[in-house]
Structures are given as structure tokens and as C-alpha cells.
């Protein structure tokens, strides 16, 4: 069944599955146990940390494993709320994932400002520089690397440099970037969060990188695990599977971006020609090679998704965790779409294994669905 919902979650990569199964046999012991088997499990854990840190470009001691980006966002905002001045205000990219937005609202209620975007959905670096040199710069900032709905890539390197120059803590949510584009440099941005299940690792396993100047950082966990930053027995098989999935992506996949971009672009051109009045969101921005936000001319997105599903094609109406929530997507609202328009957007997100014929088949299925849902004059069969 052609799967075009990788931004919601990706299938387990074969190497991650093999690693998880093997380590569940060989290294299921508690890495904190004072036994030789415990020490062996600890060695596997240390190796996974070193390997992952190497790809991210950070010292292993600044990398901790957790349950994913949602937990990571809460850890970071909780830390900021405890260590920044009581009146501190934080600045957020308005198109952050709900995991980040909700964590920010919880720890900084009424102390959030949203950053301005360009029409293409990018953070305006000129506005950021002006804000930083104003009398009231933000005390901390969060901007994601890649958007889960539109695929728009934010200039995180430049933002990290601006923040570093002003000693402003910066959180980058790399959940959709990791495994799709090279990880290099992400570990040096400051605070970084991600989830393994978006890049072929197991679910409920993720990572957090904290910056140099945060020696004081401690989740106040009371436990000695994860260098005393997160209490609870580490899941060594899942952590090793995360490291294996990331290594696999870095060593065998991320450099194939160009060819995958070609397939996505070809589909985009074909679908807007086939369905009159449809359009691609943020067409001119640099976007993930796998992600398309497609605005359809008529009929609510849920009906398009259901009809495609019946034909064996899985796409989505937007962020998986927002599906079913009342109201339009905040991402699409921030991009200037009306409520009516945002209800007509579907998200298509491919994976490394998606083939050219999968894309052709999706094009044919979507065109066929269009002939059922919209006036025939608006559909040109490819
Ligand atoms: N950030 C982004 C950009 C995401 O796409 C997601 C999941 O969709 C998350 C954070 C939350 O990840 P998790 O549910 O694994 O904690």
C-alpha cells in the first residue's frame, strides 16, 4: 500500500528492527547494574551515544536519550522557566509543531511573542536581527528546522549564529529534518530535540542536545541515568536502534535528496495541471524533498483522504496529532490561508522507499478521486 504519510511516522528501518531484536537478546540488562552484563549494556549505550553525537556534531556528554520531541520540548521550556528571570519572554516561530507550542504555553503562559514570517513561511532574519538589537530582546527563541505540514526549511544555521552572538538560548526542533537531510551542524545549534520514529527508528525514543553553557542543566530527575539529566532505566535496544536508523540515513540516504526532489517536483507540476484551481503551498521556499501541502479547489480534505485511503493510498490532512481537532491548522493560518482554504489542504509525505511508479499511481488515484468530487471540467486526466 503506497504510504505517503511519512511525516506522521515512518516504518521501522530494517537495520533498526534487526538492531532492536538483537540487542533485546544480547543487551536487555539494566545499564546501571553493577554486574558484567550491566556493564556490557552500558558499553552499548555509550557506543550509541557516541555514534549519534558524531552525526549531530556535538560532544556525547551533551546528548541525552528520551521518549521523543514532545518530552524534549517540555524539558527545555521547563529548564528555561526555572532558570530565566521570572518576567522573561520567549519568541516562537508561529508554525512550530503543537508539541512545541503547547509546551511553551504551559511553561510560559502569557509570556510568548511570535516571530514574523515571510509570505513563504520563513522566519524573517532581518526582523530577528532588529528584535535582537532592540531594548526588549527575547530571553530565548524556538524555531524548527523543517515544517511538518509544508516541509519549509528554516534558516536554522543563521538563527543559531544570531542567538549565539547575543547569548540567547535557542531551541531547534529537528524532528522532520533528521534522517531526511544531513544532520551535520545540528548538534551545535544550542538546544535540539527529535524523535526516532520519523526516521526509521522505534517510537517513543528520541534525543535532546543541550548547549555548552548549560552545565547547570538538570532535569532535576533525582536519578543518575543519562548523566543525571533524565531518571529512569534506559531502553538500550531502542536507543541502539535509533542510532542505527540515523547512521543508515546519514550513510546511505541523505545524499539522494536531489533525485527524490526531482520526483516530488514532477508530481507537483503534474497534479496542478490535472486539477484546475489546485496549488502547492510555499512553492518557492526550500522545502523537504518528501513533503507537499496541496490546496484543492473544492470539498473538505477529509473526504479526499478517505477516498484515497479506500484506493490504497495513505495521505493526511496535516499534522497527525492535529487531525480530528476542531479549527484550522495554525500553520496554514500563519501562512495567510482562510479557514475555508485550510480545510481543503492535504499533506503528502513520501519516504526513501517511495518509487517513481508510486508517485505515478498517486497522481492517477488523485485525479480519479477528483473526477468524483469536483466538476469534471476542472479535471484533466494525465
Ligand atoms: N515536532 C515535529 C516537527 C513533529 O512533526 C512532531 C511529530 O509529528 C513532533 C515534534 C512531536 O514528536 P513526538 O510525537 O514523537 O513527540
From TrEMBL:
Cofactor(s) this protein cannot do without: pyridoxal 5'-phosphate
Pfam families: Aminotran_5 (PF00266)
Alphabetized UniProt keyword annotations: Iron, Iron-sulfur, Metal-binding, Pyridoxal phosphate, Transferase
Gene3D superfamilies attached to this UniProt entry: 1.10.260.50, Aspartate Aminotransferase, domain 1 (3.90.1150.10), Type I PLP-dependent aspartate aminotransferase-like (Major domain) (3.40.640.10)
Source organism superkingdom: Bacteria
Catalytic reactions on record: (sulfur carrier)-H + L-cysteine = (sulfur carrier)-SH + L-alanine
Cited SUPFAM superfamilies: PLP-dependent transferases (SSF53383)
Molecular function terms, GO-annotated: cysteine desulfurase activity; iron-sulfur cluster binding; metal ion binding
InterPro entries, alphabetized: Aminotrans_V_dom, Cysteine_dSase, PyrdxlP-dep_Trfase, PyrdxlP-dep_Trfase_major, PyrdxlP-dep_Trfase_small
Domain Aminotransferase class V: 3-359
Protein family: Belongs to the class-V pyridoxal-phosphate-dependent aminotransferase family. NifS/IscS subfamily.
Protein name, entry field: Cysteine desulfurase
Amino acid at each position: 500500500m503506497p504510504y505517503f504519510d511519512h511525516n506522521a511516522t515512518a516504518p521501522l528501518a530494517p537495520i533498526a528492527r534487526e538492531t532492536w531484536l538483537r540487542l533485546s537478546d544480547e543487551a536487555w540488562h539494566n545499564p546501571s547494574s553493577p554486574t558484567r552484563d550491566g556493564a556490557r549494556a552500558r558499553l552499548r549505550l555509550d557506543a550509541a551515544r557516541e555514534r549519534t553525537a558524531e552525526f549531530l556534531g556535538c560532544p556525547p556528554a551533551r546528548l541525552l536519550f528520551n521518549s521523543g520531541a514532545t518530552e524534549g520540548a517540555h524539558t527545555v521550556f521547563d529548564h528555561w522557566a526555572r532558570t530565566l528571570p521570572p518576567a522573561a519572554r520567549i519568541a516562537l516561530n508561529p508554525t512550530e509543531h503543537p508539541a512545541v507550542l503547547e509546551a511553551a504555553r504551559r511553561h510560559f503562559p502569557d509570556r510568548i511573542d511570535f516571530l514574523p514570517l515571510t509570505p513563504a513561511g520563513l522566519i524573517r532574519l532581518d526582523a530577528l536581527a532588529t528584535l535582537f538589537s532592540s531594548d526588549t530582546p527575547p530571553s530565548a527563541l524556538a524555531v524548527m528546522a523543517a515544517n511538518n505540514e509544508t516541509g519549509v526549511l528554516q534558516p536554522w544555521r543563521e538563527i543559531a549564529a544570531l542567538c549565539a552572538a547575543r547569548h540567547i538560548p535557542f531551541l531547534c526542533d529537528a524532528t522532520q529534518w533528521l534522517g531526511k537531510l544531513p544532520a551535520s551542524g545540528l548538534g551545535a545549534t544550542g538546544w535540539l530535540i527529535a524523535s526516532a520514529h520519523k526516521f526509521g527508528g522505534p517510537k517513543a525514543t528520541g534525543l535532546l542536545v543541550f548547549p555548552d553553557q548549560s552545565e547547570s542543566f538538570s532535569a532535576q530527575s533525582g536519578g543518575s541515568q543519562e548523566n543525571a539529566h533524565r531518571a529512569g532505566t534506559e531502553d538500550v535496544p531502542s536507543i541502539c536502534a535509533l542510532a542505527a536508523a540515523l547512521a543508515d540515513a546519514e550513510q546511505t540516504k541523505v545524499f539522494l535528496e536531489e533525485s527524490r526532489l526531482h520526483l516530488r517536483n514532477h508530481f507537483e507540476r503534474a497534479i496542478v495541471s490535472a486539477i484546475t484551481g489546485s496549488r502547492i503551498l510555499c512553492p518557492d521556499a526550500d522545502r523537504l524533498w518528501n513533503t507537499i501541502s496541496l490546496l484543492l479547489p473544492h470539498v473538505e480534505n477529509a473526504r479526499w483522504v478517505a477516498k484515497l485511503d479506500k484506493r490504497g493510498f495513505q495521505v493526511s490532512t496535516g499534522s497527525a496529532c492535529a487531525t480530528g481537532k476542531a479549527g484550522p491548522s495554525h500553520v496554514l493560518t500563519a501562512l495567510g490561508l482562510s479557514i475555508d482554504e485550510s480545510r481543503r489542504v492535504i499533506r503528502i509525505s513520501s519516504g526513501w522507499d517511495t518509487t517513481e511508479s508510486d508517485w505515478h499511481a498517486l497522481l492517477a488515484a488523485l485525479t480519479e478521486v477528483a473526477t468524483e468530487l469536483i466538476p469534471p471540467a476542472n479535471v484533466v486526466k494525465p
